[in-house]
Amino acid sequence: MKNVTDSFVSLGHWPSAGSFGFNTDILATNLINLSVVLGVLIFFGKGVCASYNLLSLSDLLDNRKQRILNTIRNSEELREGAIEQLEKARARLRKVEIEADQFRVNGYSEIEREKLNLIDSTYKTLEQLENYKNETINFEQQKASNQVRQRVFQQALQGALGTLNSCLNSELHLRTISANIGILGAMKEITD
């Protein structure tokens, strides 16, 4: 209330007294405008019938009441629809969560199955590689053994030939040839 009286008092203290200016105090100017509007309504509204004013006020209140009730009804219907949609969304969410759990469980079991298959196939591959390795080692050992035998045989043969060549002279050589011819001749006679 003090603001209202201050605004009226401040009218006389404006620097440009007697001229037109703006009051920047919003509350004071709104109260002044409201008082002017009410004064005009009261002045011009005196000629209107009091019962008409009460009747129109009652109609206005009834209309306002109906609009509020309609708004409340609409809000309730919207609320019920929203609750229904929320329940449907929750049901869909539960369904999706169940499906996700099933996919997760199936995925884990599939991963475990694949892991076991991979381990099994890796084990088989390692076993085959071990067999190939053993076969290769055996083959290489046999090959090396054959090469050693062949070299030993060649060296023994060369040693024997060397010994024979050093021990044989031409007379012994002729006797050996004659003895062999004799043996062959005897064999020929037996077969005839």
From TrEMBL:
Pfam families, alphabetized: ATP-synt_B
Alphabetically ordered keywords of this record: ATP synthesis, CF(0), Chloroplast, Coiled coil, Hydrogen ion transport, Ion transport, Membrane, Plastid, Thylakoid, Transmembrane, Transmembrane helix, Transport
An MF annotation (GO) of this entry: proton-transporting ATP synthase activity, rotational mechanism
Protein topology in the membrane: Single-pass membrane protein
Residues in coiled coil: 72-106
Subcellular location: Membrane; Plastid, Chloroplast thylakoid membrane
Cellular component GO terms, alphabetical: chloroplast thylakoid membrane; proton-transporting ATP synthase complex
Transmembrane segments: 31-55
Assigned protein family: Belongs to the ATPase B chain family.
Function: F(1)F(0) ATP synthase produces ATP from ADP in the presence of a proton or sodium gradient. F-type ATPases consist of two structural domains, F(1) containing the extramembraneous catalytic core and F(0) containing the membrane proton channel, linked together by a central stalk and a peripheral stalk. During catalysis, ATP synthesis in the catalytic domain of F(1) is coupled via a rotary mechanism of the central stalk subunits to proton translocation.
Subunit structure: F-type ATPases have 2 components, F(1) - the catalytic core - and F(0) - the membrane proton channel. F(1) has five subunits: alpha(3), beta(3), gamma(1), delta(1), epsilon(1). F(0) has four main subunits: a(1), b(1), b'(1) and c(10-14). The alpha and beta chains form an alternating ring which encloses part of the gamma chain. F(1) is attached to F(0) by a central stalk formed by the gamma and epsilon chains, while a peripheral stalk is formed by the delta, b and b' chains.
Miscellaneous comment: In plastids the F-type ATPase is also known as CF(1)CF(0).
Protein name, entry field: ATP synthase subunit b, chloroplastic
Taxonomic lineage from the root: Eukaryota, Viridiplantae, Streptophyta, Embryophyta, Tracheophyta
